[in-house]
Design brief:
Elements: E1 13-15, E2 21-22, E3 38-40, H1 79-85, E4 94-99, H2 105-120, E5 123-127, H3 132-142, E6 149-153, H4 157-167, E7 171-175, H5 192-209, E8 212-217, H6 230-234, E9 237-242, E10 249-257, E11 265-271, E12 274-277, E13 296-303, E14 306-318, E15 327-330, H7 334-346, E16 355-361, H8 373-385, E17 393-395, E18 398-399, E19 405-406, H9 411-420, E20 425-428, E21 440-443, H10 447-454
Parallel strand pairs: 4-8, 4-9, 5-6, 5-7, 7-8, 15-16, 17-20, 20-21
Antiparallel strand pairs: 1-2, 1-3, 9-10, 10-11, 11-12, 13-14, 14-16, 18-19
Family: Belongs to the RecA family. RadA subfamily.
GO molecular function: ATP binding; ATP-dependent DNA damage sensor activity; damaged DNA binding; hydrolase activity; zinc ion binding
Motif (RadA KNRFG motif): 256-260
């Protein structure tokens, strides 16, 4: 019998998907919103135990005496992929590559594994979604066969670890982490508990052996990485692989990188021979035409440290029939487009209230940075006035709600890239810097001045 004044331990229920604990059973987990996943597992642990000092793995040393050899990146031989990683693959690093099904993740990583096997020792590819024969056919198609490239098809964590012990690879590619299960924990295959356990185990093995590990992850219909948020905290690098299905262009972007710059971008083109890097992608995002047309403006975006030329197009058409005006966006941030559209109408005095407005980017590129605001505003005004912008001109700058045009970072790199591509004038915010040789800068403080200058 418990002593007076001491509450007895109450039985708890724990979610098999995310580990959420509840004193009573509920049909839907309040944490991960999964149905029917709470199971009774006795009373939760009470109190905290004192922890005493124990053995250390290595003594602490002055930071200047820490060796750097084990933390240097090893190039993969694919320049666009190395650019995203910050130089290459770091021994012991764990990478998470996520993207939609059929986008080209497995093809690119198979080529990466072949390059690493040829230059840095054995590489192991473990597929949980395809058979070994299917992966072999893909390898033959893209020319990724090598004696040091090993292949296995497994869905059990213990079997994956056994292959690692047998091959002792310098690189492990697991495709995908959601298809591998650990018998040591409960939970459905691909659930949060299983994914967390598998990722934690492989991360520990990678750090212990100095083995670079690449985990392929699924994405939800909203584009987020499937599984617990802890997965992104466990790994060292998070890479998103995206692109339009109807386009051959693929964009590889690092959203987290402990060994290099984040938000760096690599451009690839997918074809019958695999995924090929595109070192100069600016030409893919700009239409080539003899004469300028209304509703089109060239801007320069900055993806990481790489300036890219991109074309923003707009179409303004009469609503007709007295219905509500329509706003459609492709490749741009819809909230940003709505804000710029309102500023153009209010501050630029361009009548848009009774017109449909369509805005899009060219070539399948997604533009999210505020530096494209000025180009978008000019494209909308050009389409509304049915007047083309001057040929050979680029524009960049952030547009505020009062109509002012603000400076953006990396103006020098943007102007240098535009000059390299043959553009001779640039519409920019005040104090944007010096112009490259052969380029003329047109500084405008607000939208009214920009429209007055151009129209």
């Amino acid at each position: 019998m418990p002593s007076p004044g001491v509450k007895s331990a109450r039985p708890a229920h724990r979610c098999t998907e995310c580990g959420y604990a509840s004193a009573k059973w509920v049909g839907r987990c309040p944490e991960c919103q999964a149905w029917g996943t709470l199971r009774e597992n006795g009373a939760p642990a009470t109190g905290l135990r004192a922890v005493s000092a124990g053995q250390v793995s290595a003594p602490a040393r002055p930071i200047a005496q820490v060796e750097l050899a084990g933390a240097r990146a090893v190039p993969t031989g694919i320049p666009e992929f190395d650019r995203v990683l910050g130089g290459g693959l770091v021994p012991g690093a764990v990478l998470l590559v996520a993207g939609e099904p059929g986008i080209g993740k497995s093809t690119l990583l198979l080529e990466v594994a072949q390059r690493v096997a040829a230059s840095n020792g054995p590489a192991l590819v473990v597929s949980g979604e395809e058979s070994a024969g299917q992966v072999r056919l893909r390898a033959e198609r893209i020319g990724a066969l090598h004696d040091q490239l090993y292949l296995a098809a497994e869905t059990e964590l213990s079997a994956v670890l056994a292959h690692v012990e047998a091959v002792n690879p310098s690189l492990l590619v697991l495709d995908s982490v959601q298809t591998v299960r650990s018998p040591a924990v409960e939970g459905t295959d691909g659930g949060s508990t299983q994914v967390r356990a598998v990722a934690s185990a492989l991360t520990g093995v990678a750090k212990t052996r100095g083995m670079t590990t690449i985990l392929v992850g699924h994405v939800t219909k909203d584009g987020a990485i499937a599984g617990p948020r802890t997965l992104e905290h466990l790994v060292d690098v998070v890479i998103s692989f995206d692109g339009e299905r109807h386009s051959t262009l693929r964009m590889v972007r690092a959203t987290k990188n402990r060994f290099g710059p984040a938000d760096e971008i690599g451009c690839f083109e997918i074809g019958d021979s695999g995924v090929v890097g595109v070192p100069d992608p600016s030409a893919l995002f700009v239409s080539r035409r003899a004469d300028p047309v209304p509703g089109s403006c060239i801007t320069v975006t900055l993806e990481g440290s790489r300036p890219l030329l991109a074309e923003v197009q707009a179409l303004v058409a009469s609503t007709g029939g007295g219905g509500s005006p329509r706003r459609a966006v492709s490749g741009l941030d819809s909230q940003r487009v709505a804000m710029v559209n309102a500023v153009v109408e209010r501050r630029g005095r361009v009548k848009l209230a009774d017109a449909d407005v369509y805005a899009a980017s060219v070539g399948g590129v997604r533009i999210a940075e505020p530096a494209a605001d000025l180009a978008l505003a000019l494209a909308i005004a050009s389409a509304a006035k049915d007047t083309p912008l001057p040929a050979g001109m680029v524009a960049f700058g952030e547009v505020g709600l009062s109509g002012e045009i603000r400076r953006v970072g990396g103006a020098g790199r943007r102007l240098a890239e535009a000059a390299r591509q043959g553009y001779r004038s640039a519409l920019v915010p005040p104090d944007a810097g010096s112009a490259p040789p052969g380029m003329r800068l047109i500084e405008v403080p607000d939208l009214g001045a920009a429209f007055h200058r151009l129209f």
